[in-house]
């Protein structure tokens, strides 16, 4: 079989993006969590908040350290595999990515050092300010990235002349119709990720009866956040969906597994969409609910995939099931939030091992949900690289062969697997060290070095230290 | 749109400056990795890594900025160079990742330390070689059809680019060893004094080959060199003078001058290369004006750069100031 550079490039990009996306989604939420702990400590003077902050700063340092390394690849991927796309959109994409580097990276780099190593060297207020600046940096970074992504989803403010886009209006191009929803959805996802990881890890410490007072406080705060954020995310997600229906109807049709444009469309709980046969197998459905959810009218009209030729339809099966995974995990999060609320009185939340163990498992859920969400929005855009304007095939590097794409795909998988497994291994060690180790006086000076993110964690990677 | 300024020239200056900053700054810390396997002992390796630990990732930010800035100001360069150097770019990135991770983990490792040392050494060397090959490929030029690259995956890999690749490995090693002369003392410094002349010899042989070879593959360069021979010899002459200063200062055991003079060699060779090729940015077909992005986009980003780059430079200098002085064994404590 001939190797197809297009498919291999798409797999490669998906792999690199998915791998990379895990880190920012966690660091964005975690930076704000740390800023929150620091603020509480600043206001109440209660040393428990500082204890928590010291531990989570170590986690942040390790995640940030790995995230940065994997991020270098991203800025070159556009050029290597999608050179036609980068050339055509350079007038917009170039400045946006450059602004990310000079506004966000600069802010993070400048204040990360103070956050990680400056606690005893600068006044408490300055340290808090550094924590807030690092958190702001992560948001500024996601602003530019989501702006670039939204332009590919709902292009606006550009003019195509001789195969190259020119920016007519910077405000229209930066704030395209889907940008606001996308940004909010992503921001909530980041907060949810941090809340669930903090809840899961704290639950694990509570089961082990370690640093009970501090970890109970952390769990309590995380569960309040979950109670507000999880339902809020459902609402934002719903609005985001309506926006998608308006601007990218075929993506919604794939999410719903809906083939024919019609009214009173049922909501599918289960189905095996078959793009070849242009139909679903084994449907389990609730009558008229999809119409109601999407149009807020039981007999509203919902577009079907057959509106466009087969080759312009996204990979229905992938989009359909990724969407269901994301929604199911979201509902599970709401369930846990309510469960926590029920258990809260009389402190039963800290005693139910079933609940605490459930939370441990749930700390993985936000990552899966985020990846599934990205698959829905990115794969749902197919075959369009810029929705309705440029296909993946048109954006591909013309000189790219299947062999080259395969070579680098395997290369990135190998490199990232090594980096990722070392990183996760080390992160688990930091978790095992717990608050005790993070707050212990520096006993491991011989393996500490200044200025590197990992230096904030006082744990050896091997041996039992 | 009416163009009040020649923004393209300004951007050529900014990108050229950014690249030079990257080469000089990441050069000496990549050099530590290249020299790693030859270091006298494990303690020397700790000292070498410590000497660049506080600054290396700031140095690498210039590369990310260069990539993004190139896309913003000269998209044609970005969209021809990267596909043409596809495999080389992958090697560069993989090398940088391995070495970045090694920086973090080697400090935390006890039993697996040697694995991270190798990762650091191989990653740095591969990254440096790939960058050198890029320079060679730029001198060679690219096969294009319209505005896209039309050559094969390994067209860039020729005996010439292998030589420029090895040349940059030697050059970065020289920056690395003279940096060590400046930043260390005792056994490590003695060792650095000893290897510097050999690295310089390696670099100069490549320099000679490139100078002889280039006019034969490129008509533009040939014409430029031999039509302006009365002026253009100044740059290589200055580079040679700097080499002489390196040797002399090593002999006198001065500790700052070898590094400064090594940077001088890089600076004048780089300027020499630019003058030879100007205004071609994607040789042999496209000049900086063909490759430029729209005036509107160049202006939009320039406003940000004018505001932020001075701050970045100030912050960077401050970091170097904080970590000034010699590295003692065991880091900066």
TrEMBL record, chain A:
The UniProt GO MF terms for this protein read: electron transfer activity; heme binding; metal ion binding; oxidoreductase activity, acting on diphenols and related substances as donors, oxygen as acceptor
| Glycosyltransferase in keyword set | no
Q: What topology does it adopt in the membrane?
A: Multi-pass membrane protein
Main localization of the protein described in the UniProt heading: membrane
Domain of life of the native organism: Bacteria
Question: Keywords assigned by UniProt?
Answer: Cell membrane, Electron transport, Heme, Iron, Membrane, Metal-binding, Transmembrane, Transmembrane helix, Transport
- Which compartments is it annotated to reside in? Cell inner membrane; Cell membrane
- For this chain's UniProt record, which GO biological process terms are given? aerobic electron transport chain
Pfam short name (any one)? Cyt_bd_oxida_I
Please give the start and end residues of each transmembrane region. 12-34, 55-76, 96-118, 125-146, 183-206, 218-236, 315-342, 354-376, 404-428
One CC-aspect GO term:
plasma membrane
| InterPro entries per the UniProt record, alphabetical | Cyt-d_ubiquinol_oxidase_su_1
Q: Does the keyword Transmembrane helix apply?
A: yes
Can you tell me which family this protein belongs to?
Belongs to the cytochrome ubiquinol oxidase subunit 1 family.
What this protein is called in its record is Putative transmembrane cytochrome bd-ii oxidase (Subunit i) oxidoreductase protein
From TrEMBL, chain B:
Report the principal subcellular site. membrane
Annotated GO CC locations: cytochrome complex; plasma membrane
Which InterPro entries has this protein been placed in?
Cyt-d_oxidase_su2 (IPR003317)
Top-level taxon: Bacteria
Q: Where are the transmembrane segments?
A: 7-25, 80-103, 115-139, 159-179, 199-217, 229-247, 259-280, 300-323
Record localization: Cell membrane
A Gene Ontology biological process noted in the UniProt record is: aerobic electron transport chain
Q: Which UniProt keywords apply?
A: Cell membrane, Membrane, Transmembrane, Transmembrane helix
How would you describe this protein's topology in the membrane? Multi-pass membrane protein
GO terms of molecular function: electron transfer activity; oxidoreductase activity, acting on diphenols and related substances as donors, oxygen as acceptor
* Family of this protein: Belongs to the cytochrome ubiquinol oxidase subunit 2 family.
Name the record gives this protein: Putative quinol oxidase subunit ii transmembrane protein
Gene source species: Glaciecola nitratireducens (strain JCM 12485 / KCTC 12276 / FR1064)
